[in-house]
Amino acid sequence: KKIPTVWLMGNRRRPTWGDHVMPDAYEVGSLAAHHLVHQGHRRLAFFNLNREHWPFSLYRQSFCHFAQELGAAVTTIERTTSAEADPWHRYSPGTLNDLIKEYLAIPQRPTGIFVADDLQVAMIQPALIQQGIKIGPGKTQIISCNNEQPFLVGLQPPPAEIDIRVESIGRRGIDQLMWR
What we know:
The structure is a single chain. By secondary structure, this protein is of the alpha/beta class. The protein has six helices and seven strands; from the N terminus they run ββαβαβαβαβαβα. Strands 4-3-5-6-7 form a five-stranded parallel β-sheet, with helices on both faces. A two-stranded parallel ribbon has the order 1-2. Strand 5, helix 4 (118-130) and strand 6 form a beta-alpha-beta unit. Helix 1 (25-38) packs across helix 2 (54-69).
């Protein structure tokens, strides 16, 4: 703790020491809400398979705030992950299925969906399509966050993306570390 420290991106929990450089969660939520509302959606949902992930809770708060400010109704559908699992194997098929079932049970289903990140959208969008949900303009539309192309390459149609500019976050982290 005596060495200057700068945490980058989204830690599972808020760091208790050092500085933290991460995406602007306020702007991420605003961009997602504005995009979906401007596409004509008035019933929105926030999907997240990782409820404990601190930055995603900030995305949810911001998204809900801006969506409601724009006159849209918002449903939050989140799940808890296994804390013991590594980040690449944290999401179980059962957790994903439960999230999809909860969405399908909504009487007036949201047609605009903000998925917390690209790793999740790579699983959620195909699961929705498998359940008969039509994705695309004039149908259910999805926006995701991070612009991680390896997760998006197989999705048709591709979701709208919020590019968090990881390279600029890295540069800001270096600047902050040098300042410290």
